[in-house]
């Protein structure tokens, strides 16, 4: 029987530079030193937190891919437990050798070990290969995560308001309201002066 060349283990801090390369597109936009430091934190947190695991897949002894697993609830208001497999990712040169399957297998085993009934993962909306791969494993789309910079959304919300309700007016009005509320609070906390009725 052919020996599988894929093996799985937990990440160690020494893996951080390679994982920064692997996850280059999904880490926060900052310099490489800080990204590696971020990953050391993530790896240490996963190693010491119950309900987290950072799994590294090696192919013939070389790091080929990784996935971050964490136990959570389906959403903050849906308390069904779930294992999130965050950013399963395989270096392009190791793809189509069963590494991605091994990473999802690790997520399913983690859920099974803990008696958790669901697993979830994400796939970049534009990646046909990744979406087909997930669909074949029965991971169907359930929501689209929409992301924007906070000021971009604020800008659109402001532009949608009638002209009279835009900031400038609003911040002045808010300040007046805050000052009035403070005056009223001070009045209610001041003991009545002798002779007042
Ligand atoms: C999606 C991804 C994780 C899959 O990783 P992978 O290592 O290529 O996965 P596998 O090799 O297990 O399976 C991929 C395909 O190769 C096939 N395959 C597996 N072993 C194979 C082998 N030895 N020979 C030929 N084909 C093989 C699988 O059947 C599968 O086919 P399918 O996509 O038609 O279902 C990888 O493509 C990736 O990192 N993509 C970019 C990142 C991404 O979008 N990740 C998702 C969330 S961020």
UniProtKB/TrEMBL annotation:
Chain ranges of the N-acetyltransferase domain: 6-160
What is any Pfam family matched here?
Acetyltransf_1
Keyword DNA-binding annotated = no
Instruction: Could you list this entry's UniProt keywords, alphabetically sorted.
Output: Acyltransferase, Transferase
Q: Name one GO molecular function term.
A: acyltransferase activity, transferring groups other than amino-acyl groups
Residue numbers spanned by region Disordered? 155-174
Q: Which InterPro entries match?
A: Acyl_CoA_acyltransferase (IPR016181), Bact_Acetyltransf (IPR050832), GNAT_dom (IPR000182)
PANTHER family from the xrefs? ACETYLTRANSFERASE, AMINOALKYLPHOSPHONATE N-ACETYLTRANSFERASE-RELATED-RELATED
UniProt protein name: GNAT superfamily N-acetyltransferase
- Tell me which species this is from: Nocardioides panaciterrulae
């Amino acid at each position: 029987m052919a020996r599988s060349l894929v093996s799985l283990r937990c990440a160690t801090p020494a893996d951080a530079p390679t994982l920064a390369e692997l996850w280059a597109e999904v880490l926060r936009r900052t310099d490489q030193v800080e990204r590696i430091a971020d990953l050391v934190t993530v790896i240490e947190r996963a190693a010491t937190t119950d309900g987290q695991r950072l799994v590294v897949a090696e192919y013939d002894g070389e790091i080929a891919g990784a996935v971050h697993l964490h136990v959570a609830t389906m959403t903050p208001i849906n308390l069904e437990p779930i294992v999130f497999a965050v950013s399963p990712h395989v270096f392009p040169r190791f793809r189509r050798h069963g590494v991605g399957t091994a990473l999802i297998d690790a997520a399913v085993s983690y859920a099974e070990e803990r008696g958790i009934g669901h697993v979830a993962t994400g796939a970049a909306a534009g990646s046909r290969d990744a979406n087909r791969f997930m669909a074949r494993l029965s991971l169907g789309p359930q929501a689209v995560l929409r992301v924007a910079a906070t000021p971009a959304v604020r800008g659109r919300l402001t532009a949608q308001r009638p002209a009279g309700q835009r900031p400038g007016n609003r911040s002045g009005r808010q300040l007046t309201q805050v000052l009035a509320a403070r005056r009223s609070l001070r009045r209610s906390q001041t003991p009545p002066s002798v002779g007042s009725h």
